[in-house]
UniProtKB/TrEMBL annotation, chains A, B, C, D, E, F:
Pfam families: Asp_Glu_race. Its EC number is 5.1.99.5. This is Hydantoin racemase. Belongs to the HyuE racemase family. GO terms for molecular function: amino-acid racemase activity; hydantoin racemase activity. InterPro entries: Asp/Glu/hydantoin_racemase (IPR015942), Hydantoin_racemase-like (IPR052186), Iso_Racemase_Enz_sf (IPR053714). It catalyses: D-5-benzylhydantoin = L-5-benzylhydantoin; a D-5-monosubstituted hydantoin = a L-5-monosubstituted hydantoin. The lineage of its organism: Bacteria, Bacillati, Actinomycetota, Actinomycetes, Mycobacteriales.
């Protein structure tokens, strides 16, 4: 089984970190690739960044389909492009917010999300609602560390404090990490905070692996059928071509 | 006051039709431009098409900001890129699904949506929820006419039948047209169906006009503040540059 | 086009203020009358007051219908008598809570309501739910200034403070003013608070104007059809007569 | 203990029928009066009628307060004036829709409402939501018999058929009768339909009796405190006076 | 009429206290028994305790059915075994959380629940949702006194403080007591706290009495029909037999 | 890693079938035991059966804890005893309804549930709500085959028809099987119905495996902490003892 974990931003160091976190939990027979798009923003911290990460992400899905990949993880907590990716792929596509929230829903009554910048909290709530996880989400907290500074040695301390304060304020049973760039802090934070801390990269990788094991993939008709063949022009002219391939 | 109506697909004939519908309702002092992106799909009938219409749409917003446009309409019933556009623009940005549903909410207890292809119904429901309009939406019905065939003379008859059946099945008080390409059918359909029929292009143009008249625009901080300056690479490298301008 | 703005309380000074706020935003061709009922309470600060403002309000609607008025604004934040008025009127009737909340929903993720007395907050929440705006409403705050003391020069300072505290506590993107008597403070408060402040009188006037422009009015059948002819007795005997006229 | 059952319309025959239904279930020590207002509509079949029934209803509450009545039933399925009445009364005030739906919620997973005219169904849904009973309400069905024709001997057959069809269509466990004028049909319908049929007049009378027995009445502060003293003018000038008395 | 109040824990002193509270409010003709199971936990303070209280509770229902009991109260705020009991009994079965929350919903806009241990708050929220009472529930507060220490003379002071703080924090109109063991404190607390305080034992007893008076009982078919005859083995082998009797 | 799959009914043949389905999907290093309780009903088709299956289920969890089991599946679509089991177990406990619905939520917009008897549909809806999956659940359909007759060769045809009709009626993207006894039909039904069919036994086994792999288990405090030590009497006296062990 081959799972492709797509970091939707264009920062290779973060892609490497994400790949490691995914491989740590994958079963022996599962091959995990980590890739990032050739176009788009260096980090995703706004609706604008998110929207512009999607074409590159979809190009990676199209490439994966050509290579026979079995399933995909979208490794950004905004789960950008999830629906479009599901139309394009034959196998499962799972976002890390989706998988992390579902995993945390098994650990108690409610979880707190700890994310990077406060301006992304609205999106996290939107996803919680979409996945039916709003009832499990006590609140969304920001540590105000930009995505590309998460690897700074001081960051982990700030994040641990944010997690502890979130759990105390919310009376929650678990923490969901609100950024793929925090994936490697999961064990450290679990020890520091005293409640389970969920990393979406691991959770999504295992969700894809489970769905592929059960041979579960979208039906070929309806809302998530392959996109209709159609002319694309300008910078995105090539996307029309990928589209026709996906149909074949 | 200058309002820009953006047709997010790349079909110029549809842009012209949309512009006419918007100008029909605008107040004397309001200048309405209708434009479409230089890149992207010829029509939008899937999540994939929608996602790929957004970069071109955002480029039009950025251009509008440079030209001092006061507000924008996104003239596709999926309201693609709405949040990203709101970050980028100083004035209001309104989607036609948003405006049409809100207008219809004043006309009775519930409305029916009549859209093009059934595969887009899920997105319509998603938007209804997001705008708080789910409680007013009786159901979403498809007439199964592709967007680019709406101008076929036979289409208006099929759509009228779909509207009539929708109202009968739902016991609804109004119809919301689920595609910008139906904007010119509004009056014909109102006569045929016997309940008010709402076109989102007109509704959104008037909503923007009202917000600009009231001098209401997003606050400069928080979730919808201008996107952070950031490097963009590959095909989308230019979007980093637009971004910095939006900040200035 | 003729729009009638009805202040449902019987205080003429407040009616004048409301009329001015409405006229400030109306388009050149739109005539705006401001009226108040001949019977009922001097101000509306309870469910009791609200219920007893409705007969007078309905009498004004009936009079407007006889005079060919195109649409109505109900200028009290409890939106009293809205459904009854919609049955009676041929054109649109819009409440200021309804319009203000819808307008604010375009300005960010959530708004705060700042109202007069805390005892009216429950009604504001009820309306937010009814209009589908609950998800946009962060909280309802009271400044504890009675309606008829809003024009006191000290009031505007207290209200500005309440708005600022509301925005800080809620992390909201906009403020909705919870009383028609605050309509003239809108610009002052926007400057003071630093986020957009929405006045429902202006918003409702423009919503009515937009609906009339689009020729959108309730369908003639179903829940909002004209009330059935019926005998009314006692003090309200005349209301049976108005009723028959509405049917004609 | 003295309970006053108020029929909010002005038809004495219906008041008598309602009084009998209430007295049938009251405990030995409970005195039940049935009254109707001196002003307002002969029957309530629209939002307009409902709004105009409220002043007369409130006058009855004020009279009851002067006479030391312990609690009140509002015997119309629209529960008109409920919040205003609660401000005015010291003891409990219960609407028949409220009580009937709560009683039916104990009898199975979902109930069907069978009401008079279809145009009142929207109000029934609104009340179901308000009371938290929406989740128990399978659907609202109309038998299209006007309120004042319910006593026609043919009506009971039509209503029985409507109940049976409602239960079959909804797969529901109980029926809630949607009009006080159906109170005397309860036993007949239970036999005919084969599921429990709930009459709100009986249910509300017993709910008031229970609350009075438990000495439960609203707190004297907050939203439901007595209305503030205030000038009322015109036809309703007397209502200002009643108001002051309620405060004393 | 004979009502059986079942204390689902096995502590006889608490059963006696509960019986007294129920008898205080029952009508003259109503006989109230208070019983507790012969097996299960001494107090209920976890999901585990609750689950294990149910077999003994169901045995009491089966016994009551054999003796012709008309209706039952489940006197533990987790309302354990309610659905199963409803299948088994011919007459109404009401939980004290269910009845207390419904009663409190008539007293204002929102109530606060004050319960024993914080670990039971999740269950209280779950029940609030199930009964449609979530919208009336401002919050659930714990006084952290174990069930079997509620009779300690110091407990009533701690509980009074918790109620007062709950009302202040929530701005609520009433308090719902979150444990049958607090039933005797109801009057004392109402005086102390200044808002109505609702005891579920009294409320549920009166709800059962009302339903029996109205001859309302579940329909004999569907989800709450008698359980199907079926083999039970091991410690619970006898429950198969009770089952068959219930069918007869 | 050792996962215990508990069939909560006492029918050994069904336990064997369930064990096979679980082992089919488990990773190489995962040991799967399938067990059933020593007491309780032969099949679970009512709230009564469900409630009485729980003590035996909890005894199996206690035994598993003593043996060092890493996680548990509750293999009945009512997910009986889930919360109590979570208190008792140190590792994850997952119900098959929970896991099946979550898995199906990734496959499209909505799924249909196809269950055994119609009387269990209410419970399925209740669980859908609890897990946040209500928004994904189009409807619950019954094939009216009792649990213990699912292995009849004719049953699979009836179930296939029910699935096909459910998908057609609901326009759904997937089917969730509403009984552990259907686990072996999953592949057959996927072929027959043309949309993915989800078996909860497989889904729950993989969810437990994933959570154990991520080292995610409930926090030791709060609602799901081990049950408090406490006296249990009568037939269930031994459960007090198990309790103390769980604490150690």
């Amino acid at each position: 089984m081959r799972i492709r974990v797509i970091n939707p931003n264009t920062t290779a160091a973060m892609t490497a970190l994400i790949g490691e976190s995914a491989r740590l939990v994958a079963a022996p027979g599962t091959i995990v690739d980590a890739v990032n798009p050739a176009m788009g923003p260096a980090s995703i911290e706004s609706h604008y960044d998110e929207a512009l990460s999607v074409p590159g992400l979809l190009a990676e899905i199209a490439k994966g389909e050509a290579e026979g990949v079995d399933g995909y993880v979208i490794a950004c907590f905004g789960d950008p492009g999830l629906d479009a990716a599901r139309e394009l792929a034959r196998g499962p596509v799972i976002g890390i917010a989706e998988a992390a929230m579902q995993s945390a829903s098994h650990l108690g009554r409610r979880f707190s999300v700890v994310t990077t910048l406060a301006r992304t909290a609205g999106r996290a709530w939107e996803l919680a609602e979409r996945y039916g996880m709003e009832r499990f989400c006590a609140n969304v907290h920001a540590c105000e560390i930009p995505v590309l500074e998460l690897e700074d040695p001081k960051a982990r301390r700030v994040i641990a404090d944010a997690c502890r304060e979130a759990v105390a304020a919310d009376g929650s049973d678990a923490v969901v990490l609100g950024c793929a760039g925090m994936a490697d802090l999961c064990e450290f934070l679990t020890d520091e905070v005293g409640v389970p801390v969920v990393d979406g990269v691991a959770a999504a990788t295992l969700t894809v692996q489970s769905l592929v094991t059960m041979k579960l993939r979208k039906s070929g008709r309806g809302e998530f059928a392959a996109p209709l063949p159609k002319t694309y022009v300008g910078l995105l002219a090539d996307f029309g071509i990928e589209n026709k391939e996906a149909q074949a």
